Amino acid sequence: EAITLSDTTLAATSLNALNALTTGVIDASSITTLTGAYADVNASYTANAAGTISGLANEAITLSDTTLAASSLNALNALTTGVINAASITTLTGTAADANTSYAANAAGTLSGLGNEAVTLSDTTLAVTVLNTLNGNTSGTIDANTVTTFTGAAADVETLYNASGISGLGNEAI
Q1: pTM for this one?
Q2: For residue 41, which of 74, 79, 86, 104 sits 20 to 30 Å off, Cα-Cα?
Q3: For residue 106, is it left (φ>0), alpha (ψ between -120 and 50) or beta?
C-alpha cells in the first residue's frame, strides 16, 4: 500500500522502519529535515534510489554521528540540495583530499557545522600543500601518522613542520 507522509521533520530510523512495513511506495516529499546517523540517512536515500521511498533530494539533514568518514559525508552531500548539519561530528576520517572536499562544501554552505573537529588521515603519501590546506580548515588535531611520504616544495614542508595541530609527524620520507 502506498503511503503519503505529512511530516516535515522525521528521523531516518522512522522512515526506514515504515519502509520495511509496506511494499508500496512512501511519498516523503513533505519532509524538509531528515535526522539521524549517517547509516540510517543513507539507507533512506538508498530506498529512495530503489523507488520504495520517493520525494527525497531537497531536504536538510541533521546528522547525529560523532565520527564519520569524509567520503561518506561527501557522498551524502551529493544526494540532497538541502544543507547537511554536521555539527555533531567530532572526528572526520579518511583521505586529506576527502576531508578538504567536506570543508569546501562547508565553506560553500551545502554543509554546516564543520571547522573544529579532529581529522584522522588514512593517506600514506601526501602532497604537503594538501595537508597544509587541511590544517587551515580545522582547529582540531590532524592525526597524520599513516603518512610515510610527503611531496612538495621545501617552503611548504617547513610550513607543515612548523604548524601546530598536526600529530604523527617526524619519520616521513620527503
Answers
A1: 0.95
A2: 104
A3: alpha
